[in-house]
Automatic annotation (TrEMBL):
Residues 151-229 form the TonB-dependent receptor plug domain. GO terms for biological process: siderophore transmembrane transport. GO terms for cellular component: cell outer membrane. One of its GO terms (molecular function) is siderophore uptake transmembrane transporter activity. Coiled coil: none annotated. It is a multi-pass membrane protein. Belongs to the TonB-dependent receptor family. This is Outer membrane receptor proteins, mostly Fe transport. Residues 314-752 form the TonB-dependent receptor-like beta-barrel domain.
Length: 797
């Protein structure tokens, strides 16, 4: 614990050194700060380009809508504020000591797209003028207009349409970013980490689009302030409630409904937002189908946020999320009967206080809580070959509690530097449990063994965004992370570096390097993030995962609102964790031998990504293409030989278009194509017939006699068929006073492509002669998503 607390001292010392070493420069610089808000609601707007026309300098507002600008000398300057969906505003200011300018932006009507971006000269509003690379953002308005499965607007499914991001299976929300697994994505909701991000076995994410203000994805070039995962950072900011008046928004779809309420508590100073969503397929179908009490499921989620502007220098927010899934099923067969139920969910909360010590120095202190739980109980009754009745039991349970304290500081010492530093300390409590057994009828199910794995994780960082010339930008930083298991400490330095050089003609060359460490692991058999998967922390025997990634790219701004990027990357991952051959779950005890069921390996991912994106105008959307390879190697899997990762896919294409015909009519379409994923399927089978040699099996004879066994080749050596589908959508809007309603009709998989969801073997009679039977095993494909039309209704006032 003392060594972890040393990180706090280290960060404070580093920050104080920077402060004292650049005092002279800070005194000569003039700093302008402020906040940008929506003129109607008073809600802060993140990602606004704040530009200085005279110097071509600029910045973007952060997730709280705050910004800082630095000037080398006094005088009068023109400052412009622009953001997608808002009218650009330009003002004249004469910065001085302690100057603060707060701007309110008016929304831009859909048919006045030309007011967006015009006159914009801010460096940070163009991809060619930012040091960050491998970053993606999708305006929330575009996400709401993209066609989707059954009309459910989903942030994570929208991210799957971007290059470098792959899905686990069609229709699911699992993200595989540049060869990493679903556990290697740092998903932050208002800065709070979330472990499991899906509803309904991955078909929908837990993020209600009505409650989300912005979403950003980083695939590489990670700044030092982010850590704890290997492959990506997904930042989602919840909306704040309206500071001026009461508003209501909702929608009714085929499988779920949603409702959001927002209202000022004290007008202009505090607000409250509440959003809820629930599926009702279990309630709607039950009266029409018999046996639904044995086979149904549902999910719900709740979002809430309180925001307080305590004064010109202080802001306090309290945000939270709570959601749960429940599913049960029962099957009846000739020789078997199976029952099961699953329960899983998340609960998170965060208290954040932002304080401006002076215009150039800002601090944010956060207290965060994360809770994840999942439980799966399966029971199968089988009549064996000798007519004995046998019960098979499976119980999986995983519970996580995280308590985090963190502090972040931002400081502008001059016109060329923007320093950030901070530290955090997290207490982890993992309670994984897994039991499998076989009992004859009449015996009690096995007791539920579990292990409580407590640990501490800490980190300190410092980074500087430095602009030595008008063309060159550098982000350099160091993150120092630490982890304490039961008896062992892990200390890992994580250097980060990003460079961007801008050439004439609005194009730039960018490069980055990032070293990452991950102290938690997901043990999975499905590969798609089911609630039967188990989370475990690093232990005395299980080291943290590590990765190193380099990227090189080109960025070009073709014209305002249109940009193209091309990037190549190489990533190496080490100490990845998986089950050994033959192990499908863990059995816990006090001896620690459960770790004998694990194996450790490494992975490589490399490729190229192309993105052409248009964010403004009547026609918006993007074209993305990914070419990539992902391989893994474990000493105790596949006989130690390298194999393709399950989510390895050579080519991935996505085309998205949204056209605003009029302010009342919007058309949208998406088309995606992906080449084969890798699976492990048997290449042959054999069975043991009755023979005198079976007497050598003793009590196991009854199990082996007549049993069919599969023979497998190399791991993931089977490739699925390519998948592709076209989705169409149309939205009709009508506004009358403050009330606005929207009808949406969409069609998923318009030309009814039979895309594979999974495969299985079935025994079929292939004989063409009457009375003659010739049974053969045939590989069959299951398609879950044929053509799916949907209709939904939304309203707001």
């Amino acid at each position: 614990m003392k060594r972890l607390l040393f990180l706090v001292h280290l960060t404070g010392t580093a920050l104080w050194s920077c402060l004292t070493s650049t005092t002279a420069q800070a005194q000569s610089a003039v700093v302008l700060r402020g906040t940008v808000r929506d003129a109607q609601t008073g809600v802060p707007i993140p990602g606004v380009a704040v530009a200085i026309r005279e110097t071509r300098g600029g910045t973007l507002t952060d997730t709280t809508g705050a910004y800082f600008l630095s000037f080398s000398k006094g005088g009068e300057y023109h400052i412009s504020y622009s953001s997608i969906g808002y009218q650009t505003a330009t003002i004249r200011v004469r910065p001085g000591a302690g100057t603060a300018v707060h701007m309110n932006l008016k929304t831009a009507p859909a048919h006045l797209q030309e007011v967006i971006v015009t006159g914009q000269s801010g460096a940070s509003s163009r991809v060619s003028e930012t040091v960050q690379m491998s970053g993606l953002s999708i305006p929330m308005q575009q996400i709401r207009e993209i066609p989707s499965v059954l009309g459910e607007k989903d942030v994570l499914k929208a991210l799957q349409l971007m290059p470098g991001v792959q899905k686990s299976a069609e229709g699911t929300t699992g993200l595989y970013v540049r060869g990493g697994g679903p556990d290697q994505n740092l998903v932050l909701l208002d800065g709070i980490p979330i472990y499991h991000t899906s509803h309904l076995f991955g078909f929908f994410s837990l993020f209600n689009g009505d409650a989300i203000q912005s979403v950003n994805l980083m695939k590489g070039g990670f700044p030092a302030r982010f850590g704890g995962r290997l492959s990506s950072v997904i930042e989602m900011q919840m909306r704040e409630g309206d500071f001026q008046r009461f508003r209501m928004e909702g929608g009714i779809g085929l499988i779920s409904s949603r409702l959001s309420l927002e209202t000022p508590i004290q007008k202009g100073k505090s607000s409250f937002l509440f959003s809820a969503r629930r599926t009702y397929a279990d309630l709607a179908i039950r009266p029409f189908l018999s046996g639904m009490e044995e086979r149904n499921g549902y999910f719900y989620d709740l979002n809430g946020k309180l925001s307080f502007h305590l004064g010109p220098k202080d802001k306090l927010t309290l945000s939270g999320y709570w959601g749960n899934d429940y599913f049960k099923y029962a099957t009846e067969g000739t020789i078997s009967r199976e029952r099961g139920h699953f329960v899983w969910g998340n609960g998170v909360g965060g208290l954040r206080w932002t304080h401006a010590f002076r215009p150039s120095f800002l601090s944010t202190v956060s207290l965060l809580f994360t809770h994840y739980h999942s439980a799966a109980d399966l029971e199968r009754n089988v009549i064996s070959d000798n007519n004995k009745k046998v019960k098979y039991f499976l119980h999986n349970e995983s519970t996580i509690y995280d308590y985090t304290a963190k502090a972040d500081f931002q400081w502008l010492p001059g016109t060329r530097h923007q320093l950030q530093a901070g530290f955090q300390l997290t207490s982890h409590q993992f309670n994984p449990s897994s039991v499998t057994s076989t009992n004859e009828y009449g015996l009690k199910p096995p007791s539920r063994a579990s292990a409580q794995l407590d640990s501490w994780e800490g980190a300190a960082y410092i980074e500087d965004t430095y602009q030595p010339t008008t063309r060159l930008r550098i982000n350099a930083g160091l993150r120092y992370s630490a982890f304490r298991s039961k008896k062992k400490y892990y200390f890992q330095p994580e250097p980060r570096l990003s460079l961007a050089y801008q050439f004439p003609g609005n194009w730039a060359v960018k490069a980055s390097y990032a070293s990452m460490n991950q102290y938690i692991h997901l043990l999975s058999n499905s590969g798609i993030g089911l609630p039967t998967d188990l989370w475990i922390p690093s232990t005395d025997r299980t080291p943290p995962q590590r990765s190193q990634q380099v990227a090189l790219g080109l960025a070009k701004d073709l014209r305002p609102g249109i940009a193209v990027t091309l990037e190549g990357f190489y990533k190496r991952m080490e100490q990845m964790v998986a089950y050994r051959e033959g192990a499908s779950s863990l059995s816990y005890d006090d001896t620690g031998k459960w770790e004998d069921q694990l194996t450790y390996g490494r992975g490589w991912s490399y490729g190229a990504e192309f993105l052409l994106q248009k964010k403004t105008g009547k026609l918006t959307g993007w074209l993305g293409y990914t070419l990539s390879w992902t391989r893994q190697q474990f000493d105790e899997l596949n006989f130690g030989r390298e194999f393709w990762a399950r989510y390895d896919r050579r080519h991935d294409i996505s085309l998205v278009g949204i056209y605003h015909v009029t302010p009342r009519l919007t058309l949208s379409a998406t088309w995606v194509y992906g080449t084969n994923q890798a699976f492990t399927l048997p290449r042959g089978q054999y069975w043991i017939q009755g023979t005198p040699a079976l007497t050598l099996l003793g009590d196991a004879k009854d199990y082996y006699t007549g049993r069919v066994f599969q023979e497998y080749g190399n791991r993931n050596s089977f490739r699925t068929a390519p998948f592709h589908h076209l989705d169409l959508g149309i939205q009709f809007r009508k506004a009358k006073g403050r009330f606005e309603r929207t009808w949406e009709i969409s069609v998923y998989n318009v030309y009814n492509r039979q895309n594979p969801s999974f495969y299985y073997f079935d025994t079929v009679n292939t004989s063409t002669e009457a009375g003659v039977k010739n049974y053969q095993n045939k590989l069959k494909q299951v398609t879950l998503f044929p053509i799916l039309p949907s209709v939904s209704y939304g309203f707001r006032f």
